[in-house]
What we know:
The protein has 614 residues and is of the alpha/beta class. The protein has three domains: 2-342, ABC transporter type 1, transmembrane domain (ABC transporter transmembrane region fold, Up-down Bundle); 358-438 and 521-614, 3-Layer(aba) Sandwich (Rossmann fold), CATH 3.40.50; 442-517, Rossmann fold (3-Layer(aba) Sandwich). Helix content is 63%, strand content 10%. The chain contains 21 helices and ten strands. It has helices at 2-11, 15-48, 51-55, 71-78, 86-129, 133-137, 141-183, 185-232, 234-239, 243-297, 301-342, 402-408, 432-437, 453-457, 466-475, 479-484, 502-516, 532-546, 581-587, 590-599, 604-610; strands at residues 363-372, 377-387, 391-395, 417-422, 425-426, 439-443, 520-524, 550-554, 566-571, 574-579. The chain has a six-stranded mixed sheet with strand order 6-7-8-3-9-10, sandwiched between helices. The longest helix is centred in the middle third of the chain and has 55 residues, at 243-297. The protein is elongated, with a radius of gyration of 37 Å. Residues 137, 373-374, 378, 398-404 line the site of adenosine-5'-diphosphate.
Amino acid sequence: xxxxxxxxxxxxxxxxxxxxxxxxxxxxxxxxxxxxxxxxxxxxxxxxxxxxxxxxxxxxxxxxxxxxxxxxxxxxxxxxxxxxxxxxxxxxxxxxxxxxxxxxxxxxxxxxxxxxxxxxxxxxxxxxxxxxxxxxxxxxxxxxxxxxxxxxxxxxxxxxxxxxxxxxxxxxxxxxxxxxxxxxxxxxxxxxxxxxxxxxxxxxxxxxxxxxxxxxxxxxxxxxxxxxxxxxxxxxxxxxxxxxxxxxxxxxxxxxxxxxxxxxxxxxxxxxxxxxxxxxxxxxxxxxxxxxxxxxxxxxxxxxxxxxxxxxxxxxxxxxxxxxxxxxxxxxxxxxxxxxxxxxxxxxxxxxxxxxxxxxxxxxxxxxxxxxxxxxxxxxxxxxxxxxxxxxxxxxxxxxxxxxxxxxxxxxxxxxxxxxxxxxxxxxxxxxxxxxxxxxxxxxxxxxxxxxxxxxxxxxxxxxxxxxxxxxxxxxxxxxxxxxxxxxxxxxxxxxxxxxxxxxxxxxxxxxxxxxxxxxxxxxxxxxxxxxxxxxxxxxxxxxxxxxxxxxxxxxxxxxxxxxxxxxxxxxxxxxxxxxxxxxxxxxxxxxxxxxxxxxxxxxxxxxxxxxxx
Length: 614
Ligand SMILES: Nc1ncnc2c1ncn2[C@@H]1O[C@H](COP(=O)(O)OP(=O)(O)O)[C@@H](O)[C@H]1O
Ligand SMILES: [Mg+2]
C-alpha cells in the first residue's frame, strides 16, 4: 500500500489525463450498453419503419434505454419518423463516439504510463549516480540495470493496465453496494458479511503474488548480473574458453527465475476457480437466506430479486479486480525495488552546511589518517603534506595502501580516523562538487565513453571550444594519433575506448585532465600499464600536465618520480620512509632497496615486472 501511495505521487501531475481517460472508459461502456439495449428495436424499425414500436413496448411504456432520454428528445424523434437513414446514422455516430473514447483512453493512459516511466527512471538513475564506491563494491551492476529496465517496465504495465481498471471496477463495486443499501439496509448489512468472503481471497492472492513477483524480479536482476558481467569480461571468458561455464551460470539464474514464475502462474491459475467457488458459495448462502426470509416473513420476492441481481452484478467487477491485482502485485513489487535505490542515502554526500572549496592555495594534508574498507586496517596513522605547486610521490609494494590514499583526496571514501584537509578545511565539510572540480584523477585504467574523441576529451568541460580541445590534445601528445584516426576528433572510439591502444587512451585521459584544468592532480600508476615506448609519450604528456599544478603521484616505476620534492615509501598502511630521491638513496633503506631492485640486472624477474609491457 505504501508503495502504491508513493506511485500515486508520480500519477499526480497527470490527474487531468487520468480523469479524461476514465471518462472515455465510462463513455465506452455506456455507448456499448445503450447500443446493445437499442439494437433490437432499432433493427426492427429499419425493417418495419414503425418508429412508435421502436420506442414503446406493447403496453405503451417507453422501452428500456429510451427512458434515459429526456422527453423532449423523444418528441423530436417523432419528427424523424419517416427518415429512414436515421438508424444507420445512429449506428455510425455511436461507433465514432466509441472509437474516439477508445482512442482517448488508450492513448492518454499510454502517454501517462510513459511519462511516469521517465520520471521513475530519472529518479532511480539519479540516485544511482550519487551512490559512493563503497555501495558499488558490493552491488552487481546488472541487477541495478534490471531495476532501470525490467522493473520499470513492470511499473509501466501497472500504470497502463492496472490503474484505470482499478478505479473503474472498485467504483462499480462501491456504486452497487450503495444501491444495495438504498434498496434494503438490513439485507445490505448481511451482504457486507458475505462480500468480503469474495474480496478476501483477492487480497490474499495479491499479497502472495506480490511476494513471488518480488523474488522473480530479483531473479531477473541476477540474470542480468550474470549477462552483464560475462559481456563486460568477454575477452577473459573467451581467453579462458569458459563460454560453457558462463552458459551454466546463466542457466542457473534462469532456472531460479523459472521457479518463481512457476509459482506465479500457479497462483494465477488457482485464483480464478478459488474465487469463483467462494463467490458463488457466498451467493448461494445469500440466496438461501433470502428464500428463508420470503418464506418466513411473507416478504415480497420481487424486492429480493432486484437486490439479488445487484449482488450478482457486483461479481463481474470483483472478478476483474482479481485480474487487475496481477498488475498491481507485479508492479508494486517492481516499484519497491526501484524505490529501494531511490531511498538509499549515499554515505559520501554534502554535509549540512557544506561550503564551497575556495581556489586551492596552500596544501593537501593527511593528518594522522587511518582507514579501513571492511574492518581490516589499510592505512594506519598516515600524516603527509602535499604543499601547493609541489610533486609528492607515493611508492611501495602492491597492497600497501597507495590507491587507497589517492581515493581519499577526491573523497571517494571518507577517512575512518584522523582527517584529510585542503587549505585547512576538512574535506568532509566541503561541497563534494566543488572539491571534485579542483581535483583531477588519472589512473591506470582510464575509462573512456563510446563517443567521439572530442567528446571524451571535453567530458569534464562541456563548454570547451573545439580549439581548446585541440590544444589540450596537442599538449598531451595525442594530436598526432588522433589525426590518423578515420574521422579525426569525430571518431567514435568504441565501448571503454577499445579501438585505442593503452597509451593512446591514457593520453586522451591526460588531455581531458588538462582541459579540465584542476589545480590538484592525483596520478595513480598512470603509466604502469604501458609498454616502454608508449610510456615515454605518456610520461611527457604527464610532465606537461603536472607543470604548475600540485600533484600526488603514485608510481610503480621509480625512475619517474626521481624529481619529486618528496618521496614517501608506504608499507602496510604506514609511511616508513620519506625524503628526496638523493636522501633516500643515501639512507640505504627500503627505497634504496626497491630502486636497486628495478635497476639491478641480477634480479631480472623484478626488473622485468617493473617494466612490464602491456
Ligand atoms: N574496495 C575495497 N574493498 C576492500 N578492500 C580493499 C578495497 N580496495 C583495496 N582493498 C584492500 O586494501 C589494501 C590496499 O589496497 P590499495 O590501496 O589498492 O593498495 P596499492 O594501491 O598500494 O596496491 C589491499 O589489502 C586491498 O586488498
Ligand atoms: Mg594501487
